[in-house]
Amino acid sequence: MFAGAQVSLYPMTDGFVSVILSSLKALDPWRDQLRIETDDISTLMVGPPEVLFPALRDLFVQAAGTGEHVVLRCTLSRGCPGEPDDPICQTSSLANPDEPIAARQQKALMAIADPVETGERADAQFSLYLMGAGDHMLEIMGCIDFLKQSGTFDRSKNFCTRLTGDAGPVFATLQQAFCQFGAPNGHVTIDLTVSANSPSLR
Amino acid sequence: MFAGAQVSLYPMTDGFVSVILSSLKALDPWRDQLRIETDDISTLMVGPPEVLFPALRDLFVQAAGTGEHVVLRCTLSRGCPGEPDDPICQTSSLANPDEPIAARQQKALMAIADPVETGERADAQFSLYLMGAGDHMLEIMGCIDFLKQSGTFDRSKNFCTRLTGDAGPVFATLQQAFCQFGAPNGHVTIDLTVSANSPSLR
């Protein structure tokens, strides 16, 4: 299995370079569990979902803590048939394919029952894509049902769903959406935007 | 059919609000062919691909013309089974499902043979997702073959492909990737990032 994310931080300030560089320090505790490569557009993080999502949360929280309007954007993927197996991605966090969707929804809710609180608000918007075998819309609707019970559901928009709340529960909820829906050996991706300190909300 | 995009501009400058507002003027010539709604995270643009992509190109070119480091990010979608049919999305730009992939690649190449030149460089990175029936990896590999012949192909990365060149051919190539691959009545999405004036490239 191969899993990971292409991640970018967009600080809306003249000092964007220093916000990006100082925020990346939040990844240091995770570096031995991730493979990280950076270019001018994004940073690749390769690793299992249970490492990726907390690492993304810490990156976002560090950036949000600067007080600047900053957006974290990423493309998450697991199980892409075009990518090689990678031992660093080994995970036990994916759903059991024999379980019906209702059981997976319950597991997802239990997993987010006691999330880390970070003190930083996250306004997130994301789309979940499930490719290959199976009824992808059934899984997506099952995921949306879970999101509505997650405690961070804000609203549905065209093409995506909004979550709002402390970054802890928001990223925990995103992790469950990524892990509990779609086949464990399927090709699942998320297109994610998380905004902090937007002046539009003041 | 329903088609559209959730679009955001991220100008990396203290004056981000004025860059966003001045750039949005580039959409004025397209407004009668699009339905546009804005919130604090993104702007929804609903309309057919042959309007969406030139409108996105003009928005990007206007923002890039400020000289600031600015990123346009969008989630494009067509044929999502969860969205209602909308007359504004009526299009004749989608591939004929009876045509083999090689014929669609040729059509895509012919469509980008004489693109508009804008004078602004675009560094783009995107993922194409095809859901529902059919062999989605075959279509994706067919699209990547087309991209390699497009004249703006830069390189493949994990989870995505990079295009570089004048914004005219780059957005024309993206439009063909969106229209010629996957079934016309299928559910096709693109996760797109386009960067201008990055200091990392200086």
TrEMBL record, chains A, B:
The name this protein goes by in its record: Thiamin/hydroxymethyl pyrimidine-binding YkoF putative domain-containing protein
Membrane-crossing residue ranges in chain numbering: none
Pfam families (UniProt xref): Ykof (PF07615)
InterPro entries to which the protein is assigned, alphabetical: HMP/thiamine-bd, MTH1187/YkoF-like, Thiamin/HMP-bd_put_YkoF
GO molecular function terms listed in the Swiss-Prot or TrEMBL record: thiamine binding
Residue numbers binding thiamine: 9, 43
The organism of origin for this protein: Rubricella aquisinus
Boundaries of every Thiamin/hydroxymethyl pyrimidine-binding YkoF putative domain copy: 3-83, 122-200
